Amino acid sequence: MNKVFDNVEKACAGIENGMTIMLGGFGLCGIPENSISQLVKLGTKELTCISNNAGVDDFGLGLLLQNRQIKKMISSYVGENDEFERQMLSGELEVDLIPQGSLAERCRAGGAGIPAFFTPAGYGTEVAEGKEVRVFNGKPHILESALTADYAIVKAWKGDTAGNLIFKGTARNFNPMMAMAGKITIAEVEHLVPAGELDPNQIHTPGIFIQRIFEGASYEKRIEQRTVRDENNDER
Predict the structure, then answer these.
(1) Domain assignments of the chain as residue spans, ordered by start
(2) pLDDT at 106 over 60
(3) Most buried among 6, 96, 133, 188, by the most CB within 10 A?
(4) How far is CA 95 from CA 47, 59, 74, 153, in A?
(5) CB burial class (10 A; 0-12, 13-18, 19+) of residue 222?
(6) What is the pLDDT of residue 196?
(7) Is the pTM of this model over 0.85?
């Protein structure tokens, strides 16, 4: 099976209105920049997007929000996007906010074929409303269901033609588990190498989970809030 696609246009073919899409990344780190730009060009609408965050106003998923392409966001951290806030408060955007660890585990469970699990995270808050509660070791837990998607779109540092992936730094926070949970998983990589070139001991996601892979280009790799030390401050 040839998993390599020549470009982002071919790799993202088949994504349609109303689909559920997982998009990897942690903040703006490790997001599939090329694929998000392609979704903007396609104009695909009524999307349900599962992502740790919602980008910023003019980058990442913020671009899809600006175009009103997202119907529902399932996410954890959304504090960097004013347009997200506006759409949520006005009722234009349906939002399901999930504790960060629960979101990661729900994606991992979806990829592992585990339909649901109990967790103490969120008990006693709005997160627990309408959910089954059981007590384990004297502590209340709520039942959380697994998450899957029509397409999972992830971004890796390196990948080979068999679909094996290596992520770098905090890009590992959501990309690997989302790669497992898509019916079709698209991987965009900074460096695409022949099969066999990657050290098997360094591979984070095996190629069995990847259906499409392509080498991306022109990564901006923005930083949400750039903070530097005052050069006049001698404190260490």
Answers:
(1) 8-114+148-215
(2) yes
(3) 188
(4) 12, 19, 6, 20
(5) middle
(6) 95
(7) yes
